[in-house]
Amino acid sequence: MSTEQMPLSQKSLPPDKFSEILVAIDGSEKSLYAAKYAIVLARKDDAEVIALTVAPMPAVYDLSYTLVERSREHTLAEAEKAFDKIKTFITETNGKNGKPVKLRTEVAESAVSVEATIVNYADEENVDIIVIGTKGKSGLKRLLLGSVASGVVTYATKPVLVVK
């Protein structure tokens, strides 16, 4: 019997407070807004925020090495910009709203789907909750959300907060 099929009385209780909150980041405004939600949650519970960007890697290297490396470098540069915005928000709000927030930034390079990478990372790190925005970047820059948020909600074994 899956957790979804269990009667409410048999399910384990949610945590009293969060200790690790995973937020999926792609640099879009929606993902940065989701990060702000994660920071507010973390501040209340003195939790750590893990900001995760997924860098998709081709499973088959039929593309030129230069093209793959350029794509990787672009993703890493975009991730650093997004992480800097999150760090700035934390710094600006640390003194005003209570406890300082601990932030860990991660880039996961993966040949599997972005959704699977986020779900697997959440399981491996045993986070308490995943926070994700509703829509990410579009076109070639698209890394997260819309369909990714839906996939994370569908396959995650952890609770998911979708921020609109």
Summarize it.
The chain is α/β, with parallel strands linked by helices and 164 residues long. 41% of the residues lie in helices and 20% in strands.
Task: List the main descriptive attributes of the protein structure presented here.
single chain; about 160 residues; alpha/beta; five-stranded parallel beta sheet; 4 helices; globular
Topology of helices and strands:
Elements: E1 20-24, H1 29-45, E2 48-56, H2 65-94, E3 102-110, H3 114-125, E4 129-133, H4 147-155, E5 160-163
Parallel strand pairs: 1-2, 1-4, 2-3, 4-5
Structure in words:
- There is one protein chain.
- The chain has 164 residues and is an alpha/beta fold.
- Helices cover 41% and strands 20% of the residues.
- The chain is built from 4 helices and 5 strands; from the N terminus they run E-H-E-H-E-H-E-H-E.
- The chain has a 5-stranded parallel beta sheet with strand order 3-2-1-4-5, with helices on both faces.
- Helix 2 links the parallel strand 2 and strand 3.
- Helix 1 crosses helix 2.
Low-confidence segments, given as residue ranges, are: 138-145
Characterize the main sheet: 5 strands, parallel
Binned, the helix content reads 40-55%
The topology string of helices and strands comes to EHEHEHEHE
| Rounded average pLDDT | 84
Strand content: 15-25%
Q: Which value, in Å, is the CA radius of gyration? A: 16 Å
Structural class: alpha/beta
Number of helices: 4
Strand order of the largest sheet: 3-2-1-4-5
Oligomer: single chain
Shape: globular
Number of strands: 5
First CA to last CA: what distance? 32 Å
